[in-house]
Write a structure and sequence with these properties.
The protein is of the alpha+beta class. It has a domain of 29 residues. Strand 1 and strand 2 form a beta hairpin. It is extended.
Length: 66
């Protein structure tokens, strides 16, 4: 997980990832439980025992926690 805040202005956020951001190690189940609140997905694929979803729609969340 990237341990850095990104400012949100007028419901928009510009994020540039370089790979040098400070990070914290978390488990795959932490990602699923806390951030994946998907309502629908039009595309899915399994690669290396991991499910990837595309063309998703989700419930609007309060991204200040991220």
């Amino acid at each position: 997980m990237i341990d850095q805040n990104f400012p949100i202005r007028n419901k928009k956020c510009e994020i540039l990832l370089t790979g040098a951001e400070p990070a914290v190690q978390i488990t795959k189940s932490d990602i699923q439980n806390e951030y994946a609140d998907i309502q629908t997905a039009k595309t899915q694929a399994v690669v290396d025992n991991t499910l990837f979803l595309g063309n998703v729609s989700a419930y609007e969340q309060d991204y200040h926690a991220l």
